[in-house]
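To assess whether ligand presence alters the predicted conformation, the chain was also submitted together with LLP. Input:
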Amino acid sequence: MDHFNYQPDGRLFAENVPVEDIANNFGTPCYVYSRATLERHWKAFDEAAGDHPHLVCYAVKANSNLAILSVLAKLGSGFDIVSGGELARVIEAGGDTSKVVFSGVGKTSEEIEFALDAGVGCFNVESEPELHRIANVAGRLGKVANISIRVNPDVDAGTHPYISTGLKENKFGIAIEHAPAVYQQAMAYDQLKIVGVDCHIGSQLTELDPFLDALERVLALIDQLAELGIEIEHLDVGGGLGVPYKDETPPHPSEYAHALRQRLIDRPNLKLIFEPGRAIAANAGILLTKVEFLKPTEEKHFAIVDAAMNDLIRPSLYSAYQSIQPANTSLDRKSDIYDVVGPVCETGDFLGKDRELAIAEGDLLVVRSAGAYGFCMASNYNSRPRPPEVLVDSDNAIEVRRRETFADLWKGEVVLP
Ligand code: LLP
């Protein structure tokens, strides 16, 4: 459930604010987030895990705006990061670095040093060379690095191939059968402290089974490690829980967390770490866009809008479906079937295809479920300034990132004499 609802007069509200007011104040295209929705989704994980020791580490990559991070930091959230830049954002937003887990296959020495200096909670190690690199950097700094090995359990997440990560053919993690040997290598380093096992099998999962299959395999590994004298304090189950974009019916976060907890009844001290991104942010955001032109052609009717693939790339990149609706359903309009496209010079620039919409030029449209992997994947392609981000908190609409100007487009560039 989210806090974007139509009122009886046909207007869409973000919490207590009509989205057309936001468009009037901040222009379009514009991302709009709901604080109450973000908090609700984060708490769904936290409360479902209940009294089992746990930490919800929001995956920063899903939406890294400082306002979003600070809202979650205030709830006591941890953070899953994949770069020095994400760590810098967490620090800037007031996040607790001891609750940070650092994932990613290509951590540089500089990033590892930054993370050790900042006191991150744990490195999720994705390869043997990375293990040695972390040990070297920690040794040089005279620090001890907490580590967890990200294992690849070879489970098919049943999701889009670009966002599936837990198969042997994927670049992520260390093959689960090889993990005990790597843990033994880690044991040999004084400057490494083994604290966990980590696993993330993919994103936008809509079934529980792949999660539970992976869990069984990882729990078997934890037992195997115990026999080798390696004590595991936490199990990081990654992120990946899907959201309803169309007619999917993914498990609710509480159903998911309960299912995991049940498998851990006989392991009351094994701390659970979650790394949800999409399940927290996707349906806490929308993208507002205005219809510039309606362009009927012999083959198709196009609704040309002022948002494009550079603002929201998911439809173009993954053929992802995101619902598109008018911001006001009470207007007297004739319905038609449209491809909703942007102004970018690419045939792949679309937000939705074959959508039935009752619209006219100048109308405001809403792309739903745009809070995750929306703005953070936006670019300046076609020299389009990136849109503003507005966070609604009850009656207040706060601009949490202003629209870029033309001068922002060439920031850092030079004109040759
Ligand atoms: N943890 C790790 C190690 C990850 O790689 C990811 C996402 C997450 C957590 C968070 O996953 P989530 O809960 O959001 O599914 N741009 C794509 C999604 C890429 C996900 C990459 N990794 C999209 O727009 O669908």
